[in-house]
């Protein structure tokens, strides 16, 4: 089961990256499939917890550098086939058949998906219809690498916290934060693909998500969100004269961070109340 | 920071990132100011009684600059004997003054993790149970203008 969870983690990332690369109607289908695979990943994780097996989010690197979408789709299909086979050893037959049914459908759609030329790795660092100065381009590049990893890290952290908490109020907050980070992760990935610098984020170290003190984590997390807001403001200013459109996008991301801070503050208050009560 | 093709390659595909199952040696570099850290894993080879870096990997709790520094330094450390690693660390430390503080702290953290691994090896020659060494950075990660602003407050 542990191997199946790791393999599902890898194919989730690969499918999400394929969605970022696509410039046609394939994009939404690939993003939808990535969402399904992420859910599989969480189901398998719950299964491991129920079985009392220890696990981490360690995984192998996921190579995605292709020039045609077809190459990546073949690899995704192969990975799905492998997962399908390994599921046979799952003790939970209901879970096995639920995932296998999804895999069957996804495999069929991926097999007949139209091919595309991929430019997500050409390193040109040009935004379509936007002319950026060298300084703004460099600032945007560094921001995207930093923040795409950060969003992935947050997805992993909140997912782990959610999996190990039975508190419905906290889990509702963690769920919203996961969805928000998934949205940011896709948007940043999209932008990286357009600029020809798409990359899979590095593996998150276990000590970052295996958190003993959630109160401390949330307190520090609020500070980090405030810092992320500042980065968004700086970037919005750096690109404002070259692209009002891009500037508005980073203002929008900045405003979303406000909501994250509200949610984290609520989670913190709830935890404090629970600990005192 | 200026982004050139070499930096971009390290950002897109960091070299030697992750665990190393064959590693016998580890070292840790830490920034106590913000909790960031780098762990270096080394598989030790023996060449004419000289230990050398047969394989190497690193993991980081830190920013992209730390990952780029880890990617570059571990590439340079590969195949070096341990004296060579010490020279590489010394050369890196000499360069820190020329870097912006936030970049200097990241590079120092990687260099110190390498040094901690080599020093751990030497300690373990005398005492095989000697724990993995951790070295703390001396550089502040805070940009100079922010330190100035804080002081003015």
Report on this structure.
The complex is a heterodimer of chains A (about 280) and B (about 150). With about 280 residues, chain A is mostly helical. Chain A folds into two domains: about 1-120, Ferritin, CATH 1.20.1260; about 120-275, Up-down Bundle (Ferritin). Chain A has helices at about 1-20, 25-50, 70-85, 95-110, 135-165, 170-195, 205-210, 215-240, 245-275. In chain A, helix 5 runs antiparallel to helix 8 (about 215-240). Chain B has a single domain (about 5-150), classed as Sufe protein. Chain: A. Helix content of chain B is about 45%, strand content about 20%. Chain B contains five helices and four strands. Chain B has helices spanning about 5-10, 65-75, 80-95, 100-125, 145-150; strands spanning about 25-30, 35-45, 50-60, 135. A four-stranded mixed sheet of chain B has the order 3-2-1-4. In chain B, helix 3 (about 80-95) runs antiparallel to helix 4. The chains are: A mainly alpha (about 280), B alpha+beta (about 150). The interface of A and B includes residues 123 and 141 of A.
């Amino acid at each position: 089961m542990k191997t199946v969870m790791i393999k599902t983690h890898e194919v989730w990332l690969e499918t999400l990256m394929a969605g970022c690369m696509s410039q046609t109607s394939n994009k939404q289908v690939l993003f939808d499939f990535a969402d399904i695979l992420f859910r599989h990943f969480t189901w398998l994780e719950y299964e491991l917890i129920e079985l009392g097996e220890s696990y981490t989010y360690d995984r192998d690197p996921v190579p995605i550098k292709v020039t045609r979408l077809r190459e990546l789709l073949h690899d995704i299909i192969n990975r799905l086939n492998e997962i399908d086979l390994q599921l046979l050893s799952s003790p939970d037959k209901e879970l096995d058949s639920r995932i296998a049914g999804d895999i069957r459908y996804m495999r069929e759609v991926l097999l007949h998906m139209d091919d595309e030329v991929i430019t997500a790795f050409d390193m040109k660092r040009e935004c379509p219809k936007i002319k950026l100065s060298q300084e703004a381009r460099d600032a945007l590049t560094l921001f995207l690498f930093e923040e795409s990893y950060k969003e992935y890290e947050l997805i992993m952290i909140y997912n782990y916290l959610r999996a190990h908490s039975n508190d419905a109020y906290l889990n509702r907050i963690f769920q919203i934060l996961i969805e928000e980070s998934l949205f940011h992760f896709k948007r940043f990935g999209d932008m990286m693909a357009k600029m020809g610098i798409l990359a899979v984020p590095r593996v998150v170290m276990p000590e970052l998500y295996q958190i003993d003190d959630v109160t401390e984590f949330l307190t520090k997390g609020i500070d980090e969100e405030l810092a992320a807001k500042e980065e968004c403001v700086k970037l919005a200013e750096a690109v404002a004269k070259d692209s009002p459109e891009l500037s508005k996008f980073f203002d929008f991301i900045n405003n979303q961070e406000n909501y994250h801070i509200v949610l984290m503050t609520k989670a913190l208050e709830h935890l404090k109340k629970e600990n005192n009560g | 920071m200026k982004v050139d093709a070499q930096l971009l390659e390290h950002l897109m595909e960091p070299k030697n990132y992750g665990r190393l199952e064959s590693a016998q040696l580890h070292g840790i570099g830490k920034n106590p100011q913000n909790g960031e850290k780098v762990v270096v894993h080394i598989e030790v080879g023996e060449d004419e009684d000289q230990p050398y870096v047969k394989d190497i990997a690193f993991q980081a709790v830190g920013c992209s600059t730390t990952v780029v520094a880890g990617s570059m330094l571990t590439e340079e450390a590969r195949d070096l004997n341990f004296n060579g690693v010490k020279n590489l660390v010394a050369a890196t430390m000499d360069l820190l003054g020329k870097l912006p503080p936030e970049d200097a702290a990241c590079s120092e953290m990687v260099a110190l993790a390498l040094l901690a691994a080599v020093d751990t090896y030497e300690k373990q020659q005398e005492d095989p149970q000697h724990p993995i060494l951790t070295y703390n950075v001396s550089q502040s990660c805070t940009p100079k203008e922010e330190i100035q602003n804080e002081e003015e407050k």
